[in-house]
Structure formats: structure tokens, C-alpha cells
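lol so apparently i was supposed to do this last week
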Amino acid sequence: MQIRIVANGQHPDAVAALLAELPEWFGIEAANHAYVEEARSLPTVVAIHDAQVVGACLVRRHFPEAAEIELLAVRSSHHRHGIGRQILERVEADARAHGVELLQVKTLGPSAQYEPYERTRRFYRAVGFLPLEEHLHLWANDPCLVMVKPLA
Ligand SMILES: CC(C)(COP(=O)(O)OP(=O)(O)OC[C@H]1O[C@@H](n2cnc3c(N)ncnc32)[C@H](O)[C@@H]1OP(=O)(O)O)[C@@H](O)C(=O)NCCC(=O)NCCS
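anyway here it is w/ coenzyme A bound
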């Protein structure tokens, strides 16, 4: 699959379309609205296929050394074609170039026992993230797993 990775633009409409297509992962309307608002200003890396955005990642810098993947989504029809991996490779390269040494992502924890996010955690493990801690009270209703990847 021919994919082009593009960084540094803003793609709120494409992010909204991706979220709408992935209800098993992004089923909370208020949270989706917040992601789309964030997509208006946060650095975004997108994957383009046939002139369409098929994947997107929003990145938030917390400290000079630390950044967070705020959102990562690939169109479901395009899963398992290496697009998530390629997007993250670009995110990581750009982060390293700006001095970031540690990348984190917060995702649904294993104690939720929800299968779609088991796939998500397998993806993050496959691309080098390690589970750091599962917080049971950080999010209102769900366990939150913090995963980290050293970039140095
Ligand atoms: C998670 C997600 C971004 C991964 O993107 P992707 O393009 O499908 O993943 P890739 O093809 O780059 O996968 C890279 C590796 O991760 C692992 N992996 C990915 N999906 C997997 C799955 N469903 N089951 C097991 N391993 C998986 C594999 O090792 C894979 O390499 P391989 O295909 O050569 O075996 C995508 O599936 C997605 O958008 N999921 C829904 C939303 C989501 O979970 N976002 C993250 C929220 S925190």
C-alpha cells in the first residue's frame, strides 16, 4: 500500500471523520469533540493514501524531554498495513530531532477487559512501548494504562 506521511499540518475534519469511523475505540461524543478541537492546534502527523487521510496522530509536548501521543487513529479498512507504525516512526523522528527523550501514551487498561483495546495494546507493545502503570482513578469511568517508550 502506497502511503505518504505528512507532518506539521492541521486536519480537524479528517480527524473527525476517522473518529466517526472507529466507534469501538472512540464512542464518547464529548471526547471526540475535544480531540477535534485539539486537532486545530496540536502538531499532527497524517498518513495519506489515494489523496485521502487514512491515519492521524496528535502529539502534545509536556516538557522539553517528554511528549505524549494524544490521539492515534487509522481507518479500520486500512488496519494492519503498517500505517500506524509508519506514522509513529515519523512522530518519533520529529520528537527526537527536537530533543524529546520519552514518549508516553495513555490507553484503556487491561482490567477493562475490552477486546478492541487489547489489539491497541498489542500494537503499542509491537512498536516498542512498555506498560508503566494502570491508574484506576485517573479517568472518570475507565482504567487508564500509561505506556512509555524511551527515544534516546
Ligand atoms: C492501533 C492502530 C493505530 C494501529 O495501526 P495499524 O496501522 O493497524 O498497525 P500496523 O499495521 O502499523 O501494526 C504494526 C504492528 O503492531 C502489531 N499489531 C497491530 N494491530 C494488531 C492487532 N490487531 N493484533 C495484534 N497485533 C497488532 C503487529 O505486530 C503489527 O505488525 P505486523 O502487522 O507486521 O504483525 C490502529 O489499529 C487503530 O487505529 N486502532 C483503533 C484506534 C486505536 O486503538 N487508537 C489508539 C488509541 S490509544
